[in-house]
Amino acid sequence: MSILIIITLILGILTGGAIPLGEAAWLDTLSSAILLILLFSVGIDIGLNKQVFRQIKMLGFKILLIPIGVAAGSLLGGLFLSMFVQESTKECLAISAGLGWYSLSGILITEAGYPVAGTISFLSNVFREILTFVCVPFVAKYLNYYCAIAPGGATAMDTTLPVISRNTNAKVAILAFTSGLTLTMVIPFLIPIFL
Amino acid sequence: MIKMILISLGLGFIIGYRRWISEKWIMLNGKLQTLWLVILIFVMGVGIGGNKDILHQLPALGGKAILFAIISSVGSVAVIYFISKLFFKGEEKEE
């Protein structure tokens, strides 16, 4: 799975670099359309598992531990890196608070008056999404299913949900979606806290 | 977009839950999912490869950005690993 994803991604990037598509807004529309078809298909898979909602209900408040853990871990990572780079601690925390949402984090940090940190955040969250596509199959196999939710951050509710769902089970797929959704609602407030 | 995502997932969920599709289509759905995923990743790759902003900033800030991507992901995975061992004991890989 990972090999297929890596090869496809490289082919895509090379194609995008080789063919000048201009301001390809239709490309976003196309990827959104494919994403929606894919999520429809993921929805069918989740629905087929009849016990899934009972399992989720049994977890109760523990559902929220996942997005809290994902955010906390990411910020710890940013804090750790602040010891080695010239960007300030608050910039490093803001960069890692993007949690894969590259369009928003880049803009928010840049508009707060930190254009370099904003660009780093934009790029690092693009890379985070790519990294998630590639590493989720390994993480699910060698660590555990819950860990497969973590690298995706906010993208676990949309672009990276299919990879998570494909490599785990229906219950973890729902946890991934709720985690991504929670983080998506929190990030617009989380990033400005540090700046 | 969030609304569209919820509608797509929800529609699929209802169809799966009510078993409105046959076993044959369920099998096919699983296979098609991989195909859709590959197409999505390819198209997203094309978008990244054609993004001039990314290409221009990459030489100066790419290394640092990769570092942030890896370390913050590792941090998230590590914390979730501990949480899963503490609070989701014994259910890490159940079917």
| Radius of gyration over C-alpha positions of chain A, nearest whole angstrom | 17 Å
Portion in strands of chain A: under 5%
Helix content of chain B: over 70%
Low-confidence stretches of chain A: none
Secondary structure tally: strands of chain B: 0
- What composes the largest sheet of chain B? none
Largest sheet geometry of chain A:
none
SS-based class of chain A: mainly alpha
Instruction: Note the run of SSEs of chain B as H and E.
Output: HHH
* Count of individual domains of chain B: 2
What form of chain B results from the Cα inertia axes?
flat
User: What structural class is derived from the secondary structure elements of chain B?
Assistant: mainly alpha
The end-to-end distance of chain B, rounded to whole angstroms, is 31 Å
Q: How many domain modules of chain A?
A: 1
Flag low-confidence runs of chain B: none
Number of helical regions of chain B: 3
- The end-to-end span of chain A amounts to 39 Å
Q: Can you walk me through this structure?
A:
- Chain A has 195 residues and is an all-alpha fold.
- Chain A has one domain.
- In chain A, 74% of the residues lie in helices and 0% in strands.
- Chain A contains nine helices and no strands.
- Chain A has helices at residues 2-18, 25-48, 52-59, 65-81, 89-96, 102-111, 115-142, 161-167, 170-194.
- In chain A, helix 6 (102-111) runs parallel beside helix 9.
- Chain A is globular, with a radius of gyration of 17 Å.
- With 95 residues, chain B is mostly helical.
- Chain B has two domains: 1-50; 52-86.
- Helix content of chain B is 83%, strand content 0%.
- Chain B has three helices and no strands.
- The two termini of chain B are 31 Å apart.
- Classes of the chains: A mainly alpha (195), B mainly alpha (95).
